[in-house]
Amino acid sequence: MKLFEYEAKNILAKYKIPVPNGELATNPDQACELATKLKPPFVVKAQVLVAGRGKAGGIVFANSVAEVEKAAEKLLKMQIKGIAVKSVWIEEKIQIKKELYLGITTDRFNQSYVMIASSVGGMEIEEIASKTPEKIIRFPINSQNGFHSFHARQIARKMGYAGNQLSELGRIFEGLYHAGMDYDAELIEMNPLVETVDGKFVAADARTIVDDNALFRHPEYKNRLLEGESELTLQEVEAAKNDLAYVRLDGDIGVIGNGAGLVMATLDTIQYYGGKPANFLDVGGGAPAEKIAVALKIVLSDPNVKALFINILGGITRCDEVARGILEAKSKVGVTKPMVIRLVGTNEDEGKGILTEAKIPVLESMEDAAQQAVAISKQGGK
Amino acid sequence: MPIIIDEKTRAIVQGITGAQGSFHAKLMLEYGTKIVAGTSPGKGGTQVYGIPVYDTVEEAQEKHSANASIIFVPAPFAADAALEALENGIKNVVIITEHIPIRDAVNVMAYVEKVGATIIGPNTPGIITPGKSKLGIMPAHIFKSGSVGMVSRSGTLTYEIAASLTRKNLGQSTCLGLGGDPITGLNFIDALKMFEKDTETKAIVLIGEIGGNLEELTAEYVIREKYPKPVVAFVAGRSAPPGKRMGHAGAIIMGKAGTAETKIEKFRNAGVEVAEKPSDVAELLAKLVI
User: Fold this and answer.
1) Mean pLDDT, all residues of chain B
2) Three-state DSSP class for A149?
3) Which CATH number is A21-92 given?
4) Distance (Å) from the C-alpha of residue A201 to the closest C-alpha of chain B?
5) Which residue numbers of B are catalytic?
6) Structure-model confidence comparison of residues B4 and A160, the more confident one
7) Which helix (H) or strand (E) holds A257?
8) What is the model's pLDDT at position B290?
9) How high is the ipTM of this complex?
10) Tens digit of pLDDT for each residue in A265-315?
11) Which residue from B86, B88, B161, B93 is spatially nearest to B124, judged by alpha carbons?
12) SS3 labels along B248-267
């Protein structure tokens, strides 16, 4: 789950990492009032969970409180990449001497975390890596030994700092490590971490992604996610509530399957035969009929869907349950789009029997079914 | 000689009284796996399908000395269960549980390194040596004993491909699910090393997916070590958009890293045949295994 910039900065501040003084406002009047608590000049930043906010005009500089009000008014009416701006973060502008990068993410091969630092910052880390790979310091964190102050100082030295600045950066790096661990961050970064003209360090922008699987330890964020205040679409929130994995894509064939790998391969097969999937939806293992019906409802709520492809390979999932779910959805939701169903595995005969009786054809091969779904979508769902 | 488990494996089921734990304990018993005990805190002294249940792994070990464990414990408590198995001397631990926090998995793996054990998973269907033993939740009837080693990051996709191999009479030596999480115990390279030593395995099927760079590192390993056995791969997620998690916690393209295209290209450069569709795996293999 992605956190807003202000949430990420509040976390950093708790770990004594310097961040610009700032306030959160949800309307222009409030922005005006809160700005009087801060020292000009200001930066007014739209709080949205999309990348490329700056380029889209989501960051505005202001020299006076009156300009803050104007900026807030403009930003709060804006949509950035289709997402409405609901709040702005007003902060004191910092005097930049140099932009650095510091982040922690997971390291799959070493089964641990890795700290990534760079004496060049301010752009996406991938961009830094491709433009100036020699500036990137990769420091794998040994999970038996942990991350200590001296590690932090070693990294600061490699970035070219010495003396008080080295010690100060060391404290910031160590703070970031503890913040990342305590908040179950799968990514936590300061980009840029700014060296100011007077030689201090301030995290000018911050990004944190909390591990979805650890949200039970962070109820404050989990609640916000389920209330829909996140980067998720309506369908994605509905799916999350029902413990389904759904990703909206831009095609016209709705897909439902069991198991992430199988569903991904289903989308690939549709694409292979020249079709375009409208979504990814994994019902998981052992889904009962009700869950299949909810899945159908979510997929059909996407107006672009012209045909449905249900691909089930029953292991712990039982084909008869799936068949009952399809019939339940048909009677309750009213499935008006053509369906192509591939159903094999556990209780296959019962499942097929139920659907055949309802005059719904069932296929055995995933490739045949994909071809049929593509053909239907190309005829506009007829 | 299959890898990791065989007919001598003696296993404990942790979380045996839950719906999944008891259901699969029964299926594993029926398959011939030696399930010697189960654990479930607070349920010690009871039985599940004739299997004695204990409150702690320590007690189960005192009475049964198992050498493997399979975990069905819910995610918030699964790391605790894995550490319990490891500290009580169990050297092969299969973690079926999905949705374990990354930080918990990292802690478990750090301890594994220290004690020199093997973890399969988390978020895995487990492992099966057809005809001999299974520690997992896979539908056994789609597998058949033979000479193809399978290793995969996905459950149902493994079943899909295994079933198509079985239909073509291409049996399997061992099928190993690595798990769909970003942090897992065994990885593709570990599996290739084991299959290399296994005389029964003549060829390997490797099923990867988007996210991370383990497939890329595996391709480099195949080149560096001049890997002696033929490898056929399938990579799921060619149509996946960047920045979206495709069901598995580990299946996500970050920026430009972890795409199916890069993985496929790396494999092909390493001489690994890559199938376009799941059903093509069996056809490519049929040409390699005689």
Assistant:
1) 94
2) helix
3) 3.30.1490.20
4) 27
5) 248
6) A160
7) strand A253-257
8) 56
9) 0.91
10) 999 999 999 999 999 999 987 788 889 999 999 999 999 999 999 999 987
11) B93
12) CCCCECECCECCHHHHHHHH
Amino acid identity for residue A269 in this structure: T
Question: How far from A263 is each of A23, A362, A364, B8, B37, CA to CA, in Å?
Answer: 44, 18, 16, 36, 36
Q: What is the pLDDT of residue B216?
A: 95
N-to-C CA span, chain B: 20
**Structural domains of chain B ordered from first start:** 10-120 (3.40.50.720), 138-288 (3.40.50.261)
Q: How high does pLDDT run on average in chain A?
A: 92
Q: List every span in chain A annotated with CATH 3.30.1490.20.
A: 21-92
Instruction: Tell me whether residues A257 and B249 touch, CB distance under 8 A.
Output: no
Per DSSP, the three-state class of A235 is helix
Helix (H/G/I), strand (E/B), else coil: B212: coil
Q: The domain A234-378 belongs to what CATH superfamily?
A: Succinyl-CoA synthetase domains (3.40.50.261)
Q: What is the nearest CA distance from B79 to chain A, expressed in angstroms?
A: 12
Is A124 in the active site?
no
CA angle B41, B97, A145 (to 5 degrees): 85
Name which of B222, B217, B212, B220 is nearest B259 in CA terms: B212
Q: What angle, rounded to 10 degrees, do the helices at A163-182 and A5-14 form?
A: 110
Measuring CA to CA, how many Å separate A127 from each of A101, B83, B211, B256? Answer: 12, 40, 19, 10
Amino acid making up residue A172: I
Write the residue in A211, A267, A271 that is nearest to B101 by C-beta. Answer: A211
Please name the residue ranges forming H helices in B88-234. Answer: 102-115, 156-167, 188-197, 214-224
Q: Does B197 touch chain A (CB under 8 A)?
A: no
Cis, bond preceding A192 (omega within 30 deg of 0)? yes
- Counting residues of chain A whose pLDDT is more than 70, the rounded percentage is 98
Does the domain at residues A96-220 carry the CATH identifier 3.30.470.20?
Answer: yes
